[in-house]
Design brief:
- The protein is mostly helical and 204 residues long.
- The protein has one domain (5-198).
- It has helices at residues 5-27, 36-53, 71-91, 104-132, 136-149, 157-177, 181-198.
- The protein is globular and about 50 Å long.
Length: 204
């Protein structure tokens, strides 16, 4: 692990330029909203460059041949998350995403976006944080905060930001305990789909 001051400063600079500034450009409409997916891809490619430069292995990113050994905890996490979202929908005002099956853009993009988010935030950012910092609590909280900040572009951010921060803690904790990129991506896809059709996330 690179726990040096220089290593930590580098991670903070990378978070600033690869995560915070791009989201602020979208939030303040410096870039149009339809650039969201393109920007996500560009950030992913830049992070992939970091991965190649530092010569990470697939295992460093949580991609392992025996990924099915963690299927029980991830299944329980996903099922619990779905029940929580359904329960939340009973007490929080929301607008269900009606006839989502007719929205081709949603059907085409929601799975890739969920997977790309996990590659970026857990597969890459989490490893960057683990190499620079020693505290699991700090790593999980910072990962969750950056993940939540990405959702500031959604309407009703007063509700969405705390919700995604809590979800981020869940994703980050699961990944920290059971480092498994395929399964955390699968869990995120299901929970993201559930939250979207329940109407919790609406782009500005």
């Amino acid at each position: 692990m690179d726990n040096t001051k220089k290593g930590r400063e580098l991670v903070f600079v990378q978070i600033l330029y690869l995560f915070i500034i791009p989201i602020l450009l979208l939030y303040f409409k410096v870039l149009p909203g339809n650039f969201r997916f393109i920007m996500l891809l560009v950030i992913g490619l830049l992070l992939f460059g970091i991965v190649k430069y530092d010569r990470w292995t697939y295992a460093d990113m949580g991609i392992k041949k025996d990924f099915t050994k963690d299927i029980v905890p991830y299944s329980l996490f996903t099922i619990g998350g779905v029940f929580f979202l359904v329960w939340l929908a009973q007490i929080v005002p929301h607008s269900p995403f009606l006839e989502w099956w007719e929205n081709a853009k949603f059907l085409i993009l929601f799975i890739p976006i969920s997977i790309i988010q996990e590659i970026i935030f857990r597969g890459i950012l989490m490893n960057m944080l683990r190499r620079a910092f020693g505290s699991p609590i700090f790593i999980i909280l910072l990962n969750s905060a950056v993940f939540a900040f990405m959702h500031v572009i959604y309407l009703n951010s007063i509700f969405v930001l705390p919700m995604t921060f809590i979800a981020g803690i869940g994703f980050a904790w699961m990944y920290y305990q059971y480092e498994n990129l395929p399964l955390i991506s699968f869990a995120h896809t299901i929970l993201n789909f559930t939250a979207m059709i329940l109407g919790f996330f609406v782009i500005r």
